[in-house]
Recover the amino acids of this structure.
């Protein structure tokens, strides 16, 4: 299956580092591995290395001791490498595999460095797994399974495949309330309505995506918001500040009121998602946040790999897509048709049907995986 040059004596392991650079979704989907590590090594120090902009996502997360942040500048990264070296980790798992993460993994000086054989500079690792498919004995693997496989390869129990999980912080809940109140006052709502907004049942929509091949049409989300209103759900839509235009178009396209926010922090989005009755949106990091707080989700897929990026949750969820032979693709542009027919072909009726189905599923009993 792979190369394992130096078996790990887990009883003597005191410090473990997980390296997981890049995006929101990548970070959320590292949480099953963190959960598996923490329950296997309850007395060890378990840290995770994240890029500084996404690090707040794991504030308060109970399966890690420390979130180590890294910036983008060369000097900052060298400082981080020195800090990691001083921490004297026994084992490092690189869940990412890029050049920078490999350098940082090696820079720790850890005796045991675990990664995939396909990683660049694989000679810098002591334990190399051939592939997640080899470990799980299946053709297609989810991103969470791909990361869990590295742990399982070195004898950490992962057979139950823990689900993603995030913590909604009370502090984020409080600042979220303040932003709700400010938005309602801006719209001229009465004081009583301002206080009551937090208790109004709502759906969370995320109408943006990294690429056009993943972004469902704004007018389709407007029709979806109108349907949700008929079901007794207010719609709240979120995006980043540089995507404000999409939120404005969504509000103008819809016949019902939509509350929009482009200034929420990642902990605030997590708190918001945890309150929502349902999440509806494109394949994105925000969709993974919603799944990780066990909010029912409907995720619309275009160019993405559905097997690899579907919601990793036990909460009710459904993915909506149209089958195309060219899927999945990198998504930067549509080389097959010139325009992304995969996402354009998804009909509003199919999304509404998925919403109806997800809302009809009774909540699972507490105490699920992980």
């Amino acid at each position: 299956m792979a190369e394992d040059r130096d078996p790990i004596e887990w009883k003597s392991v005191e410090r473990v580092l997980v390296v997981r650079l890049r995006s929101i979704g990548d970070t959320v989907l590292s949480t099953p591995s963190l959960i598996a590590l923490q329950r296997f090594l309850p007395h060890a120090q378990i840290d995770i290395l994240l890029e500084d902009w996404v690090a707040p996502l794991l504030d308060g997360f109970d399966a890690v001791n420390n979130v180590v942040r890294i910036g983008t500048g060369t000097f900052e990264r060298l400082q981080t490498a020195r800090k990691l070296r001083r921490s004297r980790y026994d084992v490092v798992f690189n869940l990412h595999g890029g050049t920078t993460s490999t350098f940082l993994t090696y820079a720790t000086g850890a005796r045991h460095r675990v990664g995939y054989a396909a990683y660049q500079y694989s000679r810098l690792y002591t334990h190399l797994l051939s592939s997640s498919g080899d470990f799980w004995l299946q053709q297609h693997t989810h991103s969470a399974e791909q990361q869990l496989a590295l742990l399982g390869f070195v004898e950490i129990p992962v057979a139950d495949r823990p689900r993603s999980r995030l913590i909604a912080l009370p502090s984020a809940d409080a600042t979220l309330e303040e932003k709700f109140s400010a938005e309602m006052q801006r719209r001229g709502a009465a004081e009583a309505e301002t206080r009551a907004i937090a208790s109004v049942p709502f759906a969370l929509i995320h109408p943006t995506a990294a690429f056009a091949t993943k972004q469902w049409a704004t007018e389709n989300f407007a029709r979806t918001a109108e349907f949700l209103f008929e079901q007794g759900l207010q719609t709240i839509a979120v995006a980043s500040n540089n995507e404000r235009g999409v939120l404005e178009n969504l509000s103008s396209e819809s016949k019902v009121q939509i509350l929009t926010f482009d200034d929420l922090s990642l902990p605030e989005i997590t708190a918001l998602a945890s309150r929502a009755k349902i999440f509806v949106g494109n394949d994105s990091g925000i969709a993974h946040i919603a799944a990780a707080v066990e909010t029912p989700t409907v995720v619309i897929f275009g160019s993405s790999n559905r097997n690899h990026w579907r919601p990793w949750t036990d909460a009710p969820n459904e993915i909506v897509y149209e089958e195309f032979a060219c899927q999945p693709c990198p998504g930067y542009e549509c080389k097959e048709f010139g325009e992304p027919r995969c996402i354009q072909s998804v009909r509003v009726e199919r999304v509404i049907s998925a919403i109806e189905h997800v809302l009809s599923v009774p909540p699972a009993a507490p105490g699920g995986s992980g």
